[in-house]
Amino acid sequence: MAMRIVAESARLLGAPRLIPIASAHIDGALYHGDSGTLFAERLIEGGARVAVRSTLNVGALDLMGCSRVRLEEPQRGMARRMMEAYRKLGCEQSWTCAPYQAGHRPAQGSDVAWGESNAVVFCNSVLGARTNRYGDFLDIACAITGRAPEYGLHRPENRRARLVFDVSGLSASFLASEIAWPVLGSLYGREVGNAIGVVTGIGDHPGEDALKAFGAAAASSGAVGLFHIAGVTPEAPNVETVLAGSEPEAVVHVTPQMAAKARAGLSTAAAPKTIDAVAIGSPHLSQAELDMLERLIAGRRLAVPIYACTGRHVLASLEQDGRRKRLVASGVVIVADTCVVVTPIMPELAGGVLMTNSGKFAHYAPGNTGYAVLYASLADCVESAIAGKPRFTDIAA
Amino acid sequence: MSAAAEILVPGKAGEGEALVLTAPISFWGGVDPKTGRIADVRHPQHGEIISGRVLFLPGTIGSSSASAVLMELVHNGRAPAALVLHEPDAILLLGLIVAREMGWETPTAVRLGRGVFETYRGTTVKVAEDGAVRAIPGKL
């Protein structure tokens, strides 16, 4: 069955052949309804097992017991059966949307089959490995067969940039701020859609967590599978190389007004007086991001909870020196293996307002949780959680 | 109007009121898999139900779980009557491919240029098993 799914997809996409893959990241183990559980169990009945290293994206339950998921029976049992089925297929119990920060980093130029839109874009853009945007079910089918259709981003000629996204018109202080990356990612995704672009006008490497935030936002507002940043990402030592000698088909000159509009578009709540919660960690928080959270809270008590979503790969170090205890005592809810927009964790609240520093949460929270969102930097999220009402620092684009 | 469309994924013939989306959508996070309602508050067709409609899609964005949402809609009887896409969508259509593997009855997905989508707005559309897309005269 797995090979039929791979072959049928190859036919649909016009791929001439299948190629071997080095690894997979599986996004199909998140419960959306019984159909996905039945599919995974059908694979097991057929004796399937993954042929290559396969990490798992988030599930619908927090198996580490950090947070309480409000999923009722029978859905809860079906979600657990689904997670169990993927374990039986031989997948690693990573349960994170940031596998690239949990030790799964394929080599530059290698072919892999990754699902989860932010993981795909990071894998292609920051690691330089080659994957298409694999949808749920094709990722596991490729992992079982060890093969993927040869098309799209597996082919080097399809990886060059065709558009230029120039941010040199923005202020240095904005570009150096944390919010620049989710805001620009959101704008980038909307501007380029599924095309491949190169960002120009970035001086220094902004750090891996910034690229993670940019890619996640871009892959939410657009169909972005690969971006380049001149002088930063591995396939773009400079603009000329990544354009492969061709003129760009379009150049987007990002103005401060465009950035301001994109930033405003990440919020859906209109000037609320209070907030009900803060959610961070989409993609899952890294060790460095949790360190920053701890420093910003500085032992103070929160008026509303901060839901901090992360992977089990970060939990061990969080247990050291009582760090997790201190965060929880302040009012932080650690969420592991899953996150607050994929499964019901936050209380159901008509008219609830959620603040976030994640472009991806800002995109999906209104539809999935019913909360209106307010977008802000991590520092402002923390100050707002302490005050129980929105606090904004002015950062002009 | 009528057109002979290329079949992307074969399925059963379907008939329903046209729903022409004016912006690309992420099925995951954008469509409720239980009800078929467009849940993305930023989408121009927010609140519309896609179940039983002939869905004209100008493109898809966002999550790689679009396939899982579409398969769940098929499994619980809330799928569109047919899907009309501007180009083959590697993620979304997997939902139909895998549902067929599971032995569930799936709607047909066909390809038409997005330039003609608007001509079907406000009509009842029939998509035949051979890919013929036709607005039914005399019906809304």
TrEMBL record, chain B:
Tagged with keyword ATP-binding: no
Keyword Lyase: yes
Cross-referenced SUPFAM superfamilies: LeuD/IlvD-like (SSF52016)
Keywords: Lyase
Name of the featured protein: DUF126 domain-containing protein
GO molecular function term, any single one: lyase activity
Start and end residues of each Phosphomevalonate dehydratase small subunit-like domain: 25-99
